[in-house]
Amino acid sequence: KKTKGDPKTGQEEESHTCCGCRFPLLFALLQLALGISVTVLGFLMAGISSSLLVRDTPYWAGIIVCAVSLVGFVMLCISYQPDEKTCIQFTVKLMYFLLSALGLVACVLAVAFAAHHYLQMTKFTCDSILESCQCKLDTADPLGRTFVYQDAADCGSLTSMLNLYLLLQMVLNLIAALVCLSACFVMWKHRYQVFYVGVRFYPLTAIEGQQQNV
Questions:
Q1: Which one of 28, 93, 107, 174 counts the least CB within 10 Å of its CB?
Q2: Residue 11 C-alpha from the chain's centroid
Q3: Residues 128, 130, 134, 138, CA torsion sign
Q4: Looking only at Cα atoms, what is the longest distance across the chain?
Q5: Is-contact 170 45, C-beta < 8 A?
Q6: Distances in whole angstroms, Cα of residue 133 to Cα of each of 77, 118, 158
Q7: Could you tell me the CA-to-CA distances from 11 to 2, 4, 8 in Å, in that order?
């Protein structure tokens, strides 16, 4: 039987703290790098034209991913306690799991919005009018919707730069979504019993062995 004072039990507990098992440090670093990249790129897109919608400049997704990585780094500063013996440790882990899920949803939405806008851009016919760039999907339709990009006199440079930024946003947010999904999977797999049971199976086995001995 195993007790908390046994060397084997201590070795098992230590095995949970090695090579990122205590916390996937690589995921936190990737989330921070991707979050900063998405945020900076989103603000750069917002600077191209003042008429771009918030959904088309997904800096909000990058900010959420950065917040997730910061929670992860806070987790590294907390002393490891087996079986979630400290309330703050469990709270931070649960917060990281939920924020990673939120970051996953935000990044998927950002990819969807960027892909939709990019597909529209490939079908646009644009003309420069005054200090704006006006684009239409179907020039033959007089009632067709007109997309106006303010503060953009050169439609050629606007469309080429915006297409590049949208492609980068799709790639970066897709990678960030995969990283957040992987982080959720690692947290779920590593601490599945903790989220729902709160104890491990081997203490129950030890208790049953003690009862049989008695």
A1: 174
A2: 33
A3: negative
A4: 92
A5: no
A6: 51, 16, 8
A7: 12, 11, 5
- What does the pLDDT look like over 158-213, one tens digit per residue? 888 899 999 999 999 999 999 999 888 887 776 544 433 333 444 444 445 555 55
Buried-exposed string 22-39: b where 16+ CB fall within 10 A, e elsewhere: ebbeebbebbbbbbebbb
Which residue do the tokens 């507990």 mark? 13
The token duo for 82 is 């087996």
Phi, psi (5° rounding) for residue 127? -135, 145
Q: What is the pTM of this model?
A: 0.74
Kindly report the backbone phi and psi dihedral angles of residue 149, in degrees, each rounded to the nearest multiple of 5, phi listed first: -110, 110
Q: How many CB atoms lie within 10 A of CB 91?
A: 12
Q: Measure the CA–CA gap between 140 and 122, rounded to whole angstroms.
A: 17
CB 39 within 8 A of CB 63: yes
Would you give the end-to-end CA distance of the chain in angstroms? 14
Token readout for 167 is 């492609």
Tell me the domain boundaries of the chain. 22-116+154-192
Q: Which residues contact 155 (CB under 8 A, 6 or more apart)?
A: 126, 127, 128, 133, 135, 149
Q: Which residues contact 201 (CB under 8 A, 6 or more apart)?
A: 193
Q: How far apart are CA 62 and CA 74, in angstroms?
A: 19
